[in-house]
Amino acid sequence: MEADLKKINDLLTTVYNDIMHVEEKELRKSEFKDISIKEVHAIAAITMYDHKTSSQLAKDLMITAGSVTTTINNLVRKGYVIRIYGEDDRRIVRLGLTHRGRLVYRAQDSFHRYMVKKFVAGFNDEQVEIIEHALLNLRAFLEFPPHFESKENKKNGPKD
User: Fold this and answer.
1) Is 160 helix (H, G, I), strand (E, B) or coil?
2) Most exposed residue of 12, 39, 46, 67, measured as fewest CB within 10 angstroms of its CB?
């Protein structure tokens, strides 16, 4: 079992790194060379129609409000995102995608749909449910990671 867990860990790490590498490589080959993969992920999180606030975006991306502000400022300057001010209360600012931003959104969405189709190819519905369950378990762990100590720290006690 321990060897299986290590193998799964190694695969998760490799797959994560490979996805990021392929996304970055495809981005560099596209017409959207002026944005980073993190900016693409921000565009994907804004979505086509939701018009989220910066606070909602920060929560969705699990980054600080300051990081969101910097990212949004860059995307506005580059012409991918617009700020939409509330008609009743101009202090409320929502985010929308420009035509160029929508193109990036669609390209990213298409890439991910294709990747997931390839990932589940050859699995039956029950197997896909198992994969989904495992990924939900992982997501729950990542969203609310427990505090844990390594065996080494427990064995040696607290350090002064």
Assistant:
1) coil
2) 12
If you write DSSP's letter for every residue of 115-142 in order, what string do you get? Answer: HHHHHHTT--HHHHHHHHHHHHHHHHHH
What are the structure tokens assigned to 62, written together?
């699990």
Spatial CA neighbour of 26 closest among 141, 107, 114: 107
Secondary structure (3-state) at 53 = strand
- pLDDT tens-digit readout, 106-146: 999 999 999 999 999 999 999 999 999 999 999 999 888 88
The answer to whether the CB of 57 falls within 8 A of the CB of 24 is no
Tell me how far apart the alpha carbons of residues 75 and 37 are, in angstroms, rounded to a whole number. Answer: 12
Interval 39-85: pLDDT, tens: 999 999 999 988 999 999 999 999 999 999 999 999 999 999 999 99
In the chain, the largest separation of any two C-alpha atoms, in whole Å, equals 61
Q: Are 54 and 87 in contact (CB under 8 A)?
A: no
Within 10 A of 120 (CB to CB), how many other CB atoms are there? 13
Q: Which amino acid is it at 40?
A: V
What is the spatial distance between Cα 84 and Cα 80, in angstroms, rounded to a whole number? Answer: 13
